[in-house]
Amino acid sequence: MSRKLNLRFDKCNELDIIDKYFRHQNLIDFQERGFLLMEQEEQNFPTEIRENCLVLFLDGEITNLCEKSVFAAYDEAIQADVATIILDFEKVRYINSAGIAVFINLLKKVRQKQQNLFIANLSDYFRKIFTMIGLTRYSKCYQTLDQAIADSKGLKISE
């Protein structure tokens, strides 16, 4: 006997559904590898403002420990009144489901403020993952940081 699964998405959007999945996966990851994450220090990433863009230079492992740094950079973008936030993945080695959840939450905030989120220097492997979960539908990906900055010229925050 087969049962049909009846899902209702009346008050959800796609990003909410993706976020809930990754929050659940984060709990599983934490249970399986939690002791490793507790030993790591909070991550801080450098930022730079270039031509009406805030560039966040990500590095190393992207986990829940990068959340404060990512949202501090976003607050900096709000203060600087930039139209575009660019995440530079050039030095990223690893992303877990909690790290992806951080980016989904950032994307929600960026879309609420009608700003742009661009991704630069994403490896082929991470690009496949981001495409599979749908992040590339909501943010543009570029091979280089310079391409992302060039494409952002002339973009304004829509109010």
Low-pLDDT parts are 4-11, 35-39
- Strands, count: 5
For this structure, the CATH topology is Transcription Regulator spoIIAA
Distance between the termini: 53 Å
Question: How does the helix and strand content classify structurally?
Answer: alpha/beta
The strand order across the widest sheet is: 1-2-3-4-5
Please tell me the overall pLDDT: 81
Please give the CATH architecture.
Answer: 2-Layer Sandwich
Query: Which homologous superfamily in CATH is the superfamily?
Result: STAS domain
Largest sheet: 5 strands, mixed
What does this structure look like?
Belongs to the anti-sigma-factor antagonist family. This is Anti-sigma factor antagonist. It comes from candidate division CSSED10-310 bacterium. Residues 43-152 form the STAS domain. The longest helix is centred in the first third of the chain and has 26 residues, at 14-39. Helix 1 (14-39) crosses helix 3 and helix 2 packs parallel to helix 3 (97-112). Helices cover 47% and strands 21% of the residues. The N and C termini lie far apart (53 Å). The chain has 159 residues and is an alpha/beta fold. A five-stranded mixed sheet has the order 1-2-3-4-5, sandwiched between helices. It contains five helices and five strands. It is globular and about 35 Å long. Mean pLDDT is 81; it is low at 4-11 and 35-39. The protein has a single domain, classed as Transcription Regulator spoIIAA (2-Layer Sandwich), CATH 3.30.750.
